[in-house]
Amino acid sequence: MNIITHALVGWCAGQRLLADRRDMLLVTAGSLVPDLDGLGVLAGLVSPALGLDWFSRYHHALTHNLAAGVVAAVALGAVARDRLRTAAWVFVLFHLHLLCDVVGSRGPDGEQWPVPWLFPFSDRATLVWSGQWEVNAWPNMLLTVGLLVLFLKQARDQGFSVIWYLSARADAAFVATLRRRFPLPS
Ligand SMILES: [Zn+2]
């Protein structure tokens, strides 16, 4: 699925599941870690052909697997305030990302995109679903819109959003605007 959708899943879950704001951000990062293997596309800045080659060769392989999930959980959990809880949720959200990709990441050209779960050790547990829909299909759009609504609701209800990490003042103004438009239930 789209990286924005994965980010919204991570943030909405992290804000509800963790008590500390640093841990919420770490869990959100855990939801995005699998797509690190798509960064090969940046090689396209040097050479468009190389970028395309690296993207198609490594995306949905290098970090879309169990080993990367374990590394992400240990690494992100190690720098968290609540280490065990953060590591556990990173592991879960990492796998939710994989599941979302198996369900809705078919290429625009109709190409099926499997997830090699035991890469690089074995190709036996390659996750693939024949009903996989395209990455820009309506279920993904609907899910993203639903998550955006949830993002706004949680910002209003909890009094902060992901903007807080960039600027506490801008975030306070954002939440105040939300609460004026959609007042908290009394
Ligand atoms: Zn992915």
Question: Could you outline the blueprint of secondary structure elements for this entry?
Answer:
Layout: H1 3-17, H2 21-32, H3 48-58, H4 66-78, H5 83-104, E1 115-116, E2 126-127, H6 138-158, H7 168-181
Antiparallel strand pairs: 1-2
Bound molecules: zinc ion.
Question: Would you write up a description of this structure?
Answer:
By secondary structure, the protein is mainly α. It has one domain. 58% of the residues lie in helices and 2% in strands. The protein has a two-stranded antiparallel ribbon with strand order 1-2. Helix 1 packs antiparallel against helix 5 and helix 2 packs parallel to helix 5. The longest helix has 22 residues. The chain is globular. The model has no long low-confidence stretch (mean pLDDT 94). Bound molecules: zinc ion.
User: How many independent structural domains?
Assistant: 1
Strand content: under 5%
Name the hetero compounds present.
zinc ion
Distance between the termini: 37 Å
Main pleated sheet: 2 strands, antiparallel
The helical percent reads: 55-70%
Per DSSP, the total helix count is: 7
What is the tally of beta strands?
2
- The gyration radius over C-alpha positions equals 18 Å
Helix/strand order, N-terminal first: HHHHHEEHH
User: What class do helices, strands and sheet pairing give?
Assistant: mainly alpha
Strand numbers in spatial order across the main sheet: 1-2
The oligomeric state is: single chain
What integer is the average pLDDT?
94
Residue stretches low in confidence (pLDDT < 50, at least 5 long) are none
